[in-house]
Design brief:
Bound molecules: zinc ion
Largest sheet of chain B: 6 strands, mixed
Strand content of chain A: 15-25%
Number of strands of chain A: 17
Strand content of chain B: 25-35%
Strand order of the largest sheet of chain B: 2-1-3-4-12-11
Radius of gyration of chain A: 22 Å
Shape of chain A: globular
Number of helices of chain B: 6
Order of helices and strands of chain B: EHEEHHEHEEEEEEEEHH
Largest interface: A-B, 38 and 41 residues
Helix content of chain A: 25-40%
CATH superfamily of chain B: Class I glutamine amidotransferase (GATase) domain
Oligomer: heterodimer
Distance between the termini of chain A: 31 Å
Number of helices of chain A: 15
Structural class of chain B: alpha/beta
Radius of gyration of chain B: 17 Å
CATH class of chain B: Alpha Beta
Structural class of chain A: alpha/beta
Largest sheet of chain A: 9 strands, mixed
Strand order of the largest sheet of chain A: 2-3-1-4-5-6-9-10-11
CATH superfamily of the largest domain in chain A: Mur-like, catalytic domain
Helix content of chain B: 25-40%
CATH architecture of the largest domain in chain A: 3-Layer(aba) Sandwich
Shape of chain B: globular
CATH class of the largest domain in chain A: Alpha Beta
Distance between the termini of chain B: 34 Å
Number of strands of chain B: 12
CATH topology of chain B: Rossmann fold
């Protein structure tokens, strides 16, 4: 082991300790310090992992999919390191690793699970010998940072071209499935979902603002969908060039549910299958579970451990995370792009216990500085629940309020205030015990609110979360 | 009274939430009791632009834009006639570029535009991105426009168009000459996208008023309670570091 790596590790550890002493989460700064001293830190330290190095990317579901994969691996008795705070560029990944480095400058784990930002995929593939790569989906997100969705896809494509491991791709998403020709490895695993109800009925494609891709990425022809799960995910084919959804190796068939979670029968390539009752709700979480099952299976986790791992998982940091605050429930949900936001709003309006919603919209660099995407979110569905009190907060609270007004949500009495913490406090105070307050937050708003709650001792520290 | 709003290529040219502009026009008509007939036009549809009072076309990604450019060409003469007849057009980003003489791709390929606006666009690998504040003589007080720009194209205006606005903060047409957007008759082109009209209610009303006055000369718009919209307008200006 190089002296450089040891020096880097020690400096990173010192940085973590210093940041914690002043009460700040050590999500990226230690990694920046380490990478400054030892640019090869990620590659050399992950080389110690005994079994597998994995990575998860895509627009939505990265954190939950990575957390589910970790849960499956732990069910197998493996020790795992993962960048669990959602800091998913190289410094964030390095920070998670330095946390686990021993005094001897090594990491003592079986597996690495790296959640990685799309634009960082080429960098990660250069830095670390990834064995299994999972791609969840491509939706519009943070456009001002990457220009266009095509460019986001191109980043991932460029990364995967230089990658020799096995790749798990969402076959139901044509933009993800189309990555397959770029992948060098012949070990591509396609996964997908067969939902219980066909949501396609009565959907006006032109009105469905959340639909990003209706056109074939290969020839520009208009896709025909025999069914749609949500957004542009579903069973598509292109009449012009004949391309259609690839045959899937890992398929989650939705079963009639019990309770709030989703029930799935997940079948694998060799005809084996498991039945899983997820504790987390929503068809988007079914996708996360199937993506994680494909990734864990490709990593060598057995089917029974996958079942145990998926069922034992109750939510990742800030992804429908439920907190008990003085007998009232506060649900934190990262809501950062139209498709993800629609899914979460759907869950809110169908929750009878929902009493208030705080929409916390920031336009920081990590959120995407352009908030035009708010106009593609179907806030109109809040009209179904006039009993839910809505308030707007964050640096773009006013834009959010205008969006609600034009969506037909009554503007009188609408609370619009920049300060997120006091909006959430006011919402909680106005709610009777047993009812639920939802905070739907962009990324920096989530970090802000959570660290405020942490200072007040209301939630666990993030790096242990 | 009734206005026919045409939304061109909503399935292709709807990047960055341009849909917000359409919702704003629709709602601000409806709140005044003006009936709105929404028509969506996409690839392969037959269209007669004389049927519309306001035509909206948004921005798209390069790949989708090329599909649109090849389809809209067959409507060129019809659209040009409608423009001379003072049909109101709002064209944003890619839709704005499309109305010019040509668009030069990063690879040096020249894609012919419709030639309705006297301007051309050259693509550049670095993008002009950020919050924008500008001032327009086409708008009533306070005359400011606020929004967000994100474009690789550098647009250069010819003598046949006037700039829509002068930059206070941001890059505008090309980052050099201090202009933003273009106006010809009732055609408004701009790089400000997404939630442009909702937090610039005076601009939305200029478009609606011009459309009404074609058939009802002297028609005036009833004022609306726009306190929330102006709050968002001022907040956006403040975020860009400008007192709105
Ligand atoms: Zn095709």
């Amino acid at each position: 082991m190089g002296l450089r790596r040891l020096a880097g590790s020690i400096a990173g550890k010192v940085a973590i300790a210093a940041l914690r002493r002043v009460g700040r989460a050590a999500t990226t700064a230690p990694g920046r310090v380490v990478l400054g001293l030892d640019p090869d830190f990620i590659g050399s330290v992950t080389g110690d992992a005994r079994r597998v190095r994995t990575a998860v990317t895509g627009t939505n579901g990265k954190t939950t999919t990575a957390a589910l994969m970790e849960s499956c691996m732990r069910a197998s008795g493996w020790s795992v390191v993962r960048n669990s705070s959602g800091a998913n560029m190289l410094p964030g990944i390095a920070s998670a690793l330095v946390e686990r480095v021993t005094a001897a400058g090594r990491i003592d784990v079986d597996a690495v699970v790296a959640e990685v930002d799309e634009a960082t995929v080429p960098g990660l593939v250069r830095a670390m010998a990834v064995d299994v790569f999972v791609v969840t989906n491509f939706f519009r997100d943070q456009l001002d940072r990457y220009g266009e969705m095509d460019r986001t896809v191109a980043y991932v494509r460029r990364g995967l071209e230089n990658f020799g491991g096995s790749t798990c791709l969402n076959a139901d998403d044509p933009l993800v499935a189309d990555l397959a020709p770029s992948v060098k490895a012949d070990s591509t695993v396609f996964f997908g979902i067969d939902p219980l109800v066909d949501d396609d009925e009565g959907t006006d494609v032109e009105l469905a603002a959340g639909v990003d891709t209706q056109f074939c990425p290969r020839c520009g022809g208009r896709f025909v969908y025999t069914h749609r799960v949500y957004g542009h995910l579903g069973d598509y084919h292109c009449p012009d060039c004949g391309w259609s959804r690839p045959r899937r190796h890992v398929v989650g068939r939705e079963l009639p549910g019990k309770g709030t979670g989703v029930a799935l029968e997940i079948s694998f390539a060799r005809g084996e299958s498991i039945e899983v009752n997820l504790a987390i709700p929503g068809i988007y979480n079914a996708y996360n579970a199937v993506a994680a099952a494909a990734g864990a299976h490709a990593s060598g986790v057995g089917l029974d451990d996958i079942r145990v791992g998926l069922e034992g998982f109750s939510g990742a940091f800030g992804r429908m995370e439920v907190l008990d605050i003085g007998g009232r429930e506060l649900v934190l949900a990262l809501s950062k792009n139209p498709v993800g936001f629609d899914q979460i709003l759907g869950a809110v309006v169908s929750d009878d216990e929902a009493a208030a919603v705080v929409l916390g919209i920031n336009d920081g660099h990590a959120d995407g500085r352009d908030i035009s995407w708010l106009w593609d979110v179907d806030f109109e569905m809040l009209c179904k629940r006039p009993d839910i009190r809505v308030s707007c907060a964050g640096s773009r609270a006013e834009d959010m309020a205008v969006r609600l007004k034009y969506g037909g949500i009554p503007a009188e009495g609408l609370r619009v205030e920049g300060d997120l913490a006091s909006s959430v406090d006011a919402a909680l105070e106005g709610v009777v015990e047993g009812r639920r307050v939802y905070a739907l937050l962009t990324y920096t708003a989530l970090l802000q609110l959570r660290s405020g709650l942490q200072r007040r001792g209301l939630v666990r520290e993030m790096w242990r979360g | 009274m009734k206005l026919v709003l045409g939304h061109l290529y909503p399935d292709l040219m709807n990047l960055y939430g341009d849909r917000g502009n359409f919702i704003a026009l629709q709602k601000r008509c409806e709140w005044r009791g003006i009936d709105v007939d929404l028509r969506r036009v996409t690839v392969g549809d037959d269209v007669n632009f004389a049927d519309f009072d306001i035509v909206f076309v948004g921005g798209g990604q390069d790949r989708e834009q090329e599909i649109v450019w090849s389809d809209l060409g067959r409507h060129r003469d019809d659209l040009a006639r409608a423009v001379e007849d003072d049909v109101v057009v709002l064209a944003v980003c890619g839709g704005y570029q499309l109305l010019g003489h040509y668009y030069l791709t990063p690879g040096g390929r020249k894609i012919a535009g419709l030639g309705i606006l006297d301007l051309h666009t050259e693509s550049h690998s670095s993008r002009l991105v950020g919050n924008v504040v500008c001032r327009s003589e086409y708008l009533p007080a306070p005359g400011t426009l606020v929004g967000f720009e994100n474009h690789g194209g550098r647009t250069h205006l010819g003598p046949g168009v006037a700039p829509l606005a002068r930059m206070v903060k941001g890059h505008g047409n090309n980052g050099r000459d201090g202009t933003e957007g273009a106006v010809y008759r009732n055609v408004f082109g701009t790089y400000l996208h997404g939630s442009l009209l909702p937090k610039n209610p005076h601009f939305a009303d200029v478009l609606i008023a011009r459309a009404l006055q074609r058939h009802h000369p002297g028609a005036e718009l009833e004022p609306l309670g726009d306190a929330l919209e102006w709050r968002a307008h001022r907040a956006a200006a403040a975020l860009a570091g400008v007192r709105g």
